[in-house]
Structures are given as C-alpha cells and as structure tokens.
Fold this sequence. Notes:
It is a single chain. The protein is of the alpha/beta class. It has one domain (about 1-145): Vaccinia Virus protein VP39 (Rossmann fold, 3-Layer(aba) Sandwich). Helix content is about 30%, strand content about 20%. The chain contains four helices and seven strands. It has helices at about 1-10, 30-35, 50-60, 90-105, and strands spanning about 20, 40-45, 65-70, 85, 110-115, 125, 130-135. It has a seven-stranded mixed sheet with strand order 3-2-1-4-5-7-6, with helices on one face. β4 (about 85), α4 (about 90-105) and β5 form a beta-alpha-beta unit. InterPro entries: FAM173A/B, SAM-dependent_MTases_sf. GO terms for molecular function: protein-lysine N-methyltransferase activity.
Amino acid sequence: MKAVRRMLGMAEVGPGDTLYDLGSGDGRFLIAAARELGARAVGIEADPLRVALSRLRIRAAGLQGMASVRWGNFFRVDLGEASVVTIYQSQGTNNDLRAKLERELRPGARVVSYMFTFDGWEPAEADEDSNVYLYVIGRSRGRGGAPGTIQPSLK
Length: 155
C-alpha cells in the first residue's frame, strides 16, 4: 500500500478527480482513491475473477457510488474522462499506451506509473526510491513533442 499512497499523493488526487486504474487487479487503488481522497475511481481489468473480487471489495467498503470496475481491455476503453491514470504494467505496455494517452487525455491530466517509465517522455516528477513516475499531459513536451516534461519557466 506504500506505493499506492505514493502514487496517489504524487498525482495530488482529490475529490474533483476521476481516476482510471489500468489493470486494476484487486481494486486497492480504486478503494484508496475513493475512500481516502474522495475521487471517483474506475478500474479496467481483463481478468474476470479479479473484476468479481474488486466488485466485492468495493461493495464491502460501501463505495459503490464512488468506485467501479469494468471487465475489458484498457486499450479499447475511452479514457477521455480521466483526470488521473494509474498504471502498473510493463515497459512495453507503457510504450504501447503512450499514443492512446496523448490522444485521449485532456491537458493537465496526470499519468502515474509504478516501476516503468514511458520512452520519449520525461517525468514531471520522479521518486526513484519508490519507482513512481508522474507525467502531466499537455503542459509539457518530451523528446519528439510528446507530453511529459514540465517546460522551464519563462520568468
């Protein structure tokens, strides 16, 4: 849970946010974001057993109105309403997701990845001790024009 809290804190998740957890597993991100931070949380999970477990955990926590999980492939889900996306996948999956995130997320949306970075993006913030990387869409440019690096101040 330490990494979960670090990711949510780094992204400054709060009551006005809609968080999407890609590959939501047992639902721990969803429950923490909804219960502790007041965010609306949506999980996308391909494993039907994990979907069922997550739904049971959400119901047991009394968070049905704040958290939900969908069974499906996150590459096929529209992420446009997300203000925060959390990811714990692989380097290859992160790189495959990059164009989708650039295309679908609004400027200012935060992408937080655990363990793996995105090739061509520079993190807006990185916690090397926790292996947590924060990216901000639209405010920044990485190599090749991709979002990811906060541009230097023009002051």
